[in-house]
UniProtKB/TrEMBL annotation:
Domain NADH:flavin oxidoreductase/NADH oxidase N-terminal as annotated: residue spans: 10-342
Record-linked Gene3D superfamilies: Aldolase class I
Gene Ontology terms for molecular function: FMN binding; NADPH dehydrogenase activity
Listed name of the protein: NADPH dehydrogenase
Keyword Flavoprotein: yes
Keyword entries, A-Z: Flavoprotein, Oxidoreductase
EC number(s) recorded for this UniProt protein: 1.6.99.1
PANTHER family in the record: BINDING OXIDOREDUCTASE, PUTATIVE (AFU_ORTHOLOGUE AFUA_2G08260)-RELATED (PTHR43656)
Domain of life: Bacteria
Originating species: Xenorhabdus beddingii
Length: 385
């Protein structure tokens, strides 16, 4: 097949020091195969080495929990002590040696976490959660954050960033999308505060700005990128790109490295999992709105099956980076096979969202794939769509 992958395969200069060999990245995938204490296990390290060997310019490690009080899965990655940093160090060094930047995503789950492994309440900006989240009030409950809680969480982000730095990371990504804590502050759906952390889009962004500023002050050489939830897929009730657009100058002034656009929250996850014309249209329209509001480097991941699509969308949406999670999970060598004329050998992702459903399936131990022979889902696991 004839290729024109001029933009996709060109290097990207994040700054003088950090040059990505191409524009393709593996967007965060919380695969929950760490040890129970949150340290990266040999299985975890090998999973990511396989991705790195496949040729992308950057890998974002998913969901590193910033504090013992916020967890979702028992085997989720954590980054709140030196042992966590030590366990990640060999992977980040491996990435560096193989010209692949390994970014660590810092995560506070907020009300989308679970008290099961923490025995603490879930933190929320306001007492305005929907009925599904209220069900959690039966266990340790949901706690509306006081100003004191905010100070503690800011500190936890800085401590986690220090561990990422200790592990050798040059970039961290703040998870400010998909309904988790930072994005729950950004969204009018979950943030009804009347103090300086709520009331309008600028004030809703204050926690994110505080966290970025704190990290920058503590670690001036560490680059901070943001995974930004640009649309909750709730229409007028939720976050929309138009609400965020006027606030993006604040991120620019703080020297954010790049923004990865994402959409949907727990209540609307199906928008991101199932590829429909409507979900793609909404996402692409949102990215264009964000593009017109900032000159910060932009990336996004969502339903990109191959490099030709990546190239076309990168040009059409005028973004600098393009993420692929499920397609690269389905075939870790997708990039290498594509650029060496072996497209016919690629295991192609079905984009059915089943790998994501594995995360909350108590009868299986990890995330599987329906096409990658390395991670083949057990035959007895069948999901209804
Ligand atoms: C199994 C699975 C786990 C994921 N874990 C994370 C995560 O830890 N953090 C995150 O920000 N996004 C996570 N995502 C979302 C992806 O980063 C990405 O935005 C989404 O899958 C859409 O991209 P794709 O169509 O290329 O897969 C996950 C997705 C899947 C399928």
């Amino acid at each position: 097949m004839e290729h024109n992958l001029k933009k996709t395969l060109s290097p990207f200069h994040l700054n003088e020091e950090i040059i990505l060999k191409n524009r393709l990245y593996f967007s965060a995938m919380g695969i929950d195969i760490s040890y129970n204490d949150g340290r990266a296990s040999p299985e975890f390290i090998q999973f990511y080495k396989n991705i790195i060997n496949g040729g992308c310019g950057m890998v974002i490690l998913g969901n590193a929990s910033i504090h013992p009080s916020t967890r979702l899965q028992q085997r989720g990655l954590c980054l709140h002590n030196d042992a966590h940093a030590e366990a990640l160090y060999p992977l980040i060094s491996y990435g560096r040696k193989n010209c692949c930047e390994v970014v660590v995503q810092l995560q506070h789950y907020g009300t989308q976490g679970s008290s099961e492994y923490t025995n603490t309440p879930l933190l929320s900006p306001s007492d305005s959660i929907d009925s599904r989240r209220k069900e959690k009030k039966g266990d340790y409950g949901i706690r509306v954050m006081t100003l004191d809680d905010i100070i503690k969480v800011r500190h936890q982000f800085v401590e986690a960033a220090k561990r990422a730095h200790l592990a050798g990371a040059r970039i961290v990504q703040l998870q400010a999308s998909n309904g988790y804590l930072l994005s729950s502050f950004l969204s009018p759906y979950t943030n009804h505060r009347l103090d300086e952390y709520g009331g309008n889009p600028f004030r809703r962004m204050k926690l994110l700005i505080d966290v970025i500023s704190d990290i920058k002050q503590a670690l001036p050489n560490l680059k901070v990128s943001i995974r930004l939830g640009i649309d909750d897929c709730l229409g007028e009730r939720g976050q929309k790109p138009e609400l965020l657009a006027p606030c993006l100058d604040m991120l620019y002034s703080l020297g954010v490295a790049f923004i990865e656009c994402s959409m949907s929250i727990k209540e609307t996850f199906s928008w991101m999992l199932n590829s429909t014309c409507e979900s793609k249209r909404l996402f692409h329209r949102g990215i264009k709105t964000i593009r017109s509001a900032t000159c910060l480097p932009l990336g996004f991941a969502g339903f990109i099956p191959d490099l030709n699509d990546a190239e076309q969308l990168m040009c059409e949406l005028n973004v600098e980076l393009v993420g692929m999670t499920r397609a690269i999970f389905a075939d870790n060598e997708l990039i290498l096979k594509s650029i060496t004329g072996r497209e016919g050998e690629i295991y192609k992702c079905h984009f059915d969202g089943n790998c994501f459903r594995d995360k909350s399936n108590p009868s299986i131990d990890r995330v599987y794939c329906c096409v990658n022979p390395r991670y083949q889902r057990p035959k007895n696991i069948v999901y209804q769509r």
